[in-house]
Design brief:
This protein has 6 helices and 5 strands; from the N terminus they run H-H-E-H-H-E-H-H-E-E-E. The chain is an alpha/beta fold.
C-alpha cells in the first residue's frame, strides 16, 4: 500500500487496506464512508457476518443488497443480525426485497429482535466479519 494516505480517496484507502488485510483504524464520518467500509468488509467476509443495528435501516442496508447476496451465494458463510429496536424496524427497517433475501437463506441467516433498549441514548450500529474486521458507529 502507498504510504501517502492523505492523497488517496477514502475508497482507495479502504480497498488497499482490505486487499492487504492491513490492521488500520479508519474514521467513517459520513453515510457514504460507512457504506464504502461496510461494502469492503462484506466482500472480504468468508465465514460470518454479524450486524448490530438500531432498526436495520432500509436506506443504508438496501445499498449493500448485492454484496450480501453475493456473500451468501458464494459459500457456507452465515449472517447474524441483532436489531435493537423492533418498533423502528417495523417502521423504517428492511424492505420486502431484503426481508425476502434473508428469508431465502434462513438456514444461514439468524435475526434477533429486541424491544428498544432504554439503557442507551442512541442505538449502536456495527458490523463484524470473521475474526478480522469491523465497522463501528
Amino acid at each position: 500500500m502507498d504510504n501517502n494516505i492523505e492523497e488517496k480517496s477514502f475508497e482507495d484507502l479502504v480497498k488497499d487496506c482490505a486487499d492487504s488485510q492491513m490492521d488500520l483504524a479508519i474514521a467513517n464520518s459520513t453515510m457514504e464512508h460507512a457504506l464504502i467500509g461496510s461494502r469492503y468488509l462484506i466482500k472480504n467476509a468468508k465465514e460470518k457476518i454479524r450486524i448490530v443495528s438500531g432498526c436495520f435501516l432500509k436506506s443504508f442496508w438496501e445499498n449493500l443488497y448485492s454484496e450480501i447476496i453475493s456473500y451468501l451465494q458464494k459459500g457456507n458463510g452465515t449472517v447474524e443480525i441483532i436489531i435493537i429496536d423492533e418498533a423502528d424496524y417495523k417502521k423504517e427497517g428492511a424492505s420486502e426485497k431484503m426481508a425476502a433475501l434473508l428469508n431465502s437463506f434462513k438456514a444461514r441467516v439468524q435475526v434477533y429482535m429486541f424491544e428498544k433498549l432504554n439503557l442507551i441514548e442512541k442505538s449502536p450500529n456495527f458490523l463484524t466479519i470473521d475474526q478480522k474486521g469491523y465497522r463501528y458507529e
